[in-house]
Amino acid sequence: MIISILVVGIIGLLIGILLSLASIKFEVKVDENEEKEILSHMPHCISARWHPTFCDISPIGGTKQLGIDKFLEYYGLDLKDTMAFGDGGNDMQMLKHVNTAIAMGNAGDELKSIADFVTKDVDDEGISYALQHYGLIDL
């Protein structure tokens, strides 16, 4: 179970990244009004803001959530056994989808508010700290 949770998180993220790359995902430096204007010309896309001046624009369906679902389907695993880590607005959908949502300490307040657990900053061994908190590893 420990291995499947770790593997699902890592592989799900990788699959999501690969799906996004295959779907021509790109980052845009814009404010929220400019983001809305751009998206009005791209009805087949969605955006995920992860910084006040940056957002990811991806085709609808090219998400981390889809990557996780495809991984679970392929390996016959259940969503109840998933855990994901996030630190930006582009992780919101993924964290709402998995069973256990972990916000990194350096995440924004909105992401932290939907998390099951807020761990230490990414630069302060936050992933290890959360895995210890849930009894998945001993250090």
Furnish the topology, listing elements before pairings.
Blueprint: H1 2-22, E1 26-29, H2 32-40, E2 45-51, E3 54-59, H3 64-75, E4 83-86, H4 92-97, E5 100-103, H5 109-114, E6 117-118, H6 126-133
Parallel strand pairs: 4-5, 5-6
Antiparallel strand pairs: 1-3, 2-3
Helix pairs in contact: 1-3
Outline the structure in words.
The protein is of the alpha/beta class.
Major sheet description: 3 strands, antiparallel
Helix content, binned percent:
40-55%
Beta-strand proportion: 15-25%
Number of strands: 6
- Element order, helices and strands? HEHEEHEHEHEH
Regions with little confidence, pLDDT below 50 for 5+ residues? none
Q: Gyration radius, to the nearest Å?
A: 15 Å
Give the class from helix and strand content and strand pairing: alpha/beta
Contiguous helical run count: 6
Spatial sequence of strands, sheet with the most strands = 1-3-2
Shape: flat
Mean of residue pLDDT? 82
Q: How far is the first residue's CA from the last residue's CA?
A: 18 Å
In short:
This protein has helices at 2-22, 32-40, 64-75, 92-97, 109-114, 126-133, and strands at residues 26-29, 45-51, 54-59, 83-86, 100-103, 117-118.
Give descriptors for this structure.
single chain, alpha/beta, three-stranded antiparallel sheet, three-stranded parallel sheet, 6 helices, 6 strands
